[in-house]
Amino acid sequence: MNEYSAGKVDDYQDGDRKVVLCGEAEVGVFRIAGEFYAWHNRCAHRAGPVCQGRLMKRVLEPVDADGQVRAQAYDECEDHIICPWHGYEFSIRTGRHPGNERVRLRKAELIVRDGEIYVRA
Ligand code: FES
């Protein structure tokens, strides 16, 4: 397994991401709430470029006493990425689809060493 540079820790502000070419693979590196995560840039649905999708908080649909959803809310503790091809979304922390835990992204090994970030793929 080879190691590829994904830049310096200081290159990433909170909420930033980079998609890094790692040989024949692409890996998305994300910085969320000070932590780094790395996922292969192949959606679990049909292999779309999921790491290039929009980042947003998890959407909640609170049900009222009448059993109706009248507004949307956002879970400020959960960051998701939305695949640009068909809209599947995944937790950046866990790689899991919120509605089906068997559908998940493939994790890439991430190493932080001496202020630099590396990905093994
Ligand atoms: S390929 Fe990602 S949602 Fe279909």
TrEMBL record:
InterPro entries, A to Z: Rieske_2Fe-2S (IPR017941), Rieske_2Fe-2S_sf (IPR036922)
UniProt keyword list: 2Fe-2S, Iron, Iron-sulfur, Metal-binding
GO molecular function, one term: 2 iron, 2 sulfur cluster binding
Domain Rieske: 3-119
Name the UniProt record assigns to this protein: Rieske (2Fe-2S) protein
Record lineage: Bacteria, Pseudomonadati, Pseudomonadota, Alphaproteobacteria, Hyphomicrobiales
